[in-house]
């Protein structure tokens, strides 16, 4: 019948379009067996790389003045609550500063502790003008401490060639700035080795 011929022609054309890689003889064989398996050739999807969100560059941070403390906020009394919080943080970190607590244990904890809010004094320095500066650490960078003094003056004190003392509940600890040239985040992961004598 005419309809069956049309159907056969349509099926042949359809199979040729659907399976372009298949030869005509193979298509003819499929039709005679009345078994047709249509194959699907899918295109490979290219994976889109996720863009990493980038933070500000050092130059952009300087331009935006992200780390600058405004002059009206440079007041010692304003940061005393921060110091009280820091004292509680150290007491919790050292499980309470008791008289029988081993000094080296407290020293080890302080080496990795966050010092923002601590009151420090420059006890030794190769530059005499730094000796005696006392105040609350407001910012710690890799090479410097920013300290607010009782006179409401913001001092930038380099770590290099300076020794800082830190007192809490009768326990006095010394920070040798030359061995402390790290960012606060890097210090928490660093392993410090005990050394016999340290010089400026």
TrEMBL record:
The keyword Phosphoprotein applies. One of its GO terms (cellular component) is ribonuclease P complex. It is found in: Nucleus, Nucleolus. Keywords: Nucleus, Phosphoprotein, tRNA processing. GO terms for molecular function: ribonuclease P RNA binding. It holds the Pfam family RNase_P-MRP_p29. Its main location: nucleus. The keyword Transcription regulation does not apply. GO terms for biological process: rRNA processing; tRNA 5'-leader removal. Belongs to the eukaryotic/archaeal RNase P protein component 1 family. Component of ribonuclease P, a ribonucleoprotein complex that generates mature tRNA molecules by cleaving their 5'-ends. Component of nuclear RNase P and RNase MRP ribonucleoproteins. RNase P consists of a catalytic RNA moiety and 10 different protein chains; POP1, POP4, POP5, POP7, RPP14, RPP21, RPP25, RPP30, RPP38 and RPP40. Within the RNase P complex, POP1, POP7 and RPP25 form the 'finger' subcomplex, POP5, RPP14, RPP40 and homodimeric RPP30 form the 'palm' subcomplex, and RPP21, POP4 and RPP38 form the 'wrist' subcomplex. All subunits of the RNase P complex interact with the catalytic RNA. Several subunits of RNase P are also part of the RNase MRP complex. This is Ribonuclease P protein subunit p29. It comes from Helopsaltes ochotensis. The lineage of its organism: Eukaryota, Metazoa, Chordata, Craniata, Vertebrata.
